[in-house]
Amino acid sequence: MLITISQEENPVGTPKGKPVLLYWNANKAMQEHEFSLYHHDKTGLTKLKLENRPPREKDSETEVDGQDFSSLAPGASHPRHTNLPVEYRRLLHLGEKYSLMWPGGEIKWWDWGDLRDHQNTHIRADETSHSVRPRLILPASNVIEFTTVAEETPWPDRPQWEAISIDLANSKELKWRQYHDTGKRTKRSALVSESERNPDTPRFSLTLRGEPATLSLSGRYDKYMTIHHHADPVANPDGKAVTFDSSCPDRFALVQHTQHGPEELEEGFVCGFPSFPDEDQKISVGKSDTFVSLLPGESHTTGPINFYPHHDYDEEFELGERYQYQYIGGEIKWWDWGTKEVC
User: Do residues 253 and 206 touch, judged by C-beta distance below 8 A?
Assistant: First the structure.
């Protein structure tokens, strides 16, 4: 589900044009059963009772981060994806109609400003005094209505996985349907054919190396990326150097070898989350460590890049299965002929 939190264009009591920084995570609210689920029956709507969850610890303050906090300017919105937890799904019956909604509630951790104003700071939840900040109420949402239906083709392994965990069964079934229903396969970006190549561009390739040879799910794996500049008598007959932005390419994927062939499980960033400045910045190519110059036949290696299997791909690995981590193609953001000193 896509859940979007928004601030009105001209809310009463809000300083003109000032953003609001608030702590509200749709996924955590769902996990703590703060959303209401209703069943459409013969008498109308019946609210379904969920199992009691232990209350969240009432910390007096919380650290500001970019994961749980949303910064909203007047008229802005912040969408978040979430799933229906297993406790909700257990209440559903085939062929029945249901409604789901946020019933409304108070946001205790909030302040004026955005993430940059509160970086590396803490926000207090002053429950006893609202002289500094008034109470912030997130009102009730619209209602999502849905009807449960059976898949046309049942997944044969559903019972054995559901006996372990419904969440795990849903994850495994989703992968199975991606393969069988849509024919999803790993899409490897092959080398560009000669007829498709721009004859004026240099030839590059990328190789990966990992250490140690045996991967421990609870340990750390170090990856090294090497970019090669290949000689090309057509595009570069004089053997000129090429200077390029060596920032980490972002198209890497975890692939599982199945009886049907390689199947891409997840695509992600190899170097964590990229940082994008708010405004364009002028950078001196000759003085920046990001830019590298290579003559034909030379290469540049980046690493080690830390990879933590249990953290990065928490539920993807299965005992006894074979996997590979691969580069699936991408684009060098900036390049030019010549060395760094002349670019």
Answer: no
